[in-house]
Amino acid sequence: AEPEPHVVVLFGATGDLARRKLLPGLLHLQAAGLLPPCRVVGTALEDLGDDGFRALAQAACERFGRPEVPLEARQAFLGCLRYVPTGAGPEALAAAVGRAREELPGWPRLLHYLSIPPQAMAAVVDLLARAKLVERARIVMEKPFGTDLASARALNEVVHRVFEESQVFRIDHFLGKEAALNILAFRFANGLFEPIWNRHHIDHVQIDVPETLTVDERAGFYDRTGAFRDMVVTHLFQILAFVAMEPPVAFDPPSIDQERTKVFRSLRPIDPKQVVRGQYEGYRAIAGVDVDSQTETFVALRCEVDNWRWAGVPFFLRTGKAMAEGARIISIAFREPPKSMFPAGSGIGERGPDHLTFDLDDDARLSLSFYGKRPGRGMALDKLSLQFALHETGYQRDVLEAYERLVLEAMVGDRTLFASAEGIERLWELSAPLLEQPPPLEPYPVGSWGPSSIGRLVAPRTWRLPFER
Ligand code: BG6
User: Fold this and answer.
1) Distance (Å, rounded) from C-alpha 235 to C-alpha 231?
2) How many CA atoms lie within 13 A of 175 on its CB side?
3) Which residues line ligand 1 (CB under 6 A)?
4) The pTM is what?
5) pLDDT in tens, 117-130
6) Which end of the chain offers a freer environment for a tag, N or C, measured as fewer CB atoms within 10 Å?
7) CB–CB of 73/27 below 8 Å?
């Protein structure tokens, strides 16, 4: 379906996410001819006018947007932007949206994008109700959705008082990454892999998302959130569901959501003893961070999907800020052969089991590593690999950034790649033991792979990252 004309009402329009992703993403979509006729009404706490907001958007698009977007397209986009301070109240918001609507053909739909912290969501939902901006509207809610089970339930209730569930789009941008969708294509469009996609052939799975970023520019949000809520409850668990789920009956929202939710129901509650929480050295000195902050900037954990396919196969998850390298990989480690006929010293097993690795970068790389013969005399073995890289194909220019894809999906009302109320509540429920009794924080140096105890978490296995060079 083609999206109808839209007024996008962007809450948190001056925030980090809006500047880094949403404004540059909307610009790119418009320049690529993928957006319907649109106006964007930005709103935030700052007291800006249209021009002030345009200046901010222009700077954001220059800094974070795609350099190839031509000047005319940039100017046309800025011309579509309007601003109203959130504090101006429901009438002012309704009036600004009304004016923007009149500039467009027909009766435009509304897309309310709530790029704001979980604590601020309920007030905005209430504001939308008072401004009577509910009809023909959809609402996109940024993660984290709540901060625990009780707050997620309360938020779902608040939202459902105003919006139908079919109008609600809980966004998790990892679900919109090309490479994440490629997991589904890879698993369910080929006959080769699904037969070995289970406990009989897979030893363990790692979902590893180290980041080199620090949190200086969003310390206030981050210090109230932490790595577990910011990354695991949302992104990593959703990716885990794509790796672990059963084949859906169809590629449609109810079927996919049902299988994802089944994975979440099979996940065992997180055992705090199987979790390492870290904080990078110097974090507490950042402006906006509490001087004795107990917030983790790193988390690694072991979890188990307790069903017939996966019983006994550990899933190791890791993510953190200020780490040595940035990466986003999913690595499937296959079991080693039951018996080796190759002599000791041949090299077999020395470099770990064979792996299938998905790289969630926009470049969507995929590699299969295996043992093969090293050329020359004798029978020495070496780790070889088969690789696929999107940028080496003709597809690269069609790649949509995750937020871009998801905004378009929300505009046509397709909820396949969005999280459901039930799924999210279940994730908070199984996170409760950890949230209630978090293990002590361990410091780690900036530029490292996390606290030293992470080795113990996976032993006798090892972390797949850093890759050997
Ligand atoms: C966001 C988190 O949701 O995802 C950030 O709030 C994190 O802390 C980001 O850096 C990572 O996203 P991506 O697409 O850059 O991997």
Assistant:
1) 5
2) 24
3) 173, 211, 213, 230, 328
4) 0.94
5) 989 999 999 999 99
6) C
7) yes
